[in-house]
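#structure-requests
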Amino acid sequence: MSNPKIAVYSLPDLKNTTDDALPNYLTSLKFKQSHLLTDVRLSLGYTAVVIAAITFGLDYKLGWDKTKDLTLWAVVIYFILNGALTYWIWGVEKGKIFTGENEHGLLTIASSVKKHTPVYNLTVRHANSKGSWKSWKSSEISAPFTRWFDADGYFVAQPFQQWLATEIPVIGQADPRNIVGVAQETTAGLEKTKDQTTTKGLEVDTPKKATQATGTSTGTRSRKSKK
């Protein structure tokens, strides 16, 4: 999948790109995402559109006199649906970009940005007991977009994933390698092992060279003795 370039000064583009990357990362860690919020929002929106289309079609075919009563009820239902949709977006979803679960429990994440402030804010809620929505723990984290967007406007996944795994324990449990401290220790351990291997190799080669030099010197002395 290509990584599109965005305008680094556009907060909506920065937020939308990051919002799209977060569920993809979590589902790759075997989080099971719930699409209930999205399904309800789409159902309300499409139902309102279908009612408007049917009303327009009947009015066009049968005329106003025969459809005015039906149109009145259609308008009432349309406004009710739009009111319900508005409430659902602002009162229920509240900026949620992920709702799901894994073997460690339930997780919801909502995102937001403040006007003219290029900082990504997350409100995280987690329940330890799977299947129960009662014992919630809430936390808020934030980081500048420059942490995972380069100067050219390209999204860099690893710094974003490391931030999530380090700041959100349930994600860190699912992806411990991306926790910043663990990742640094792992890298340091690999470098140390590599250095030790290189040092041992040098220690093995050095005696061989010394033995070869000793053998050469002994052979030279032997030839001189014969002479």
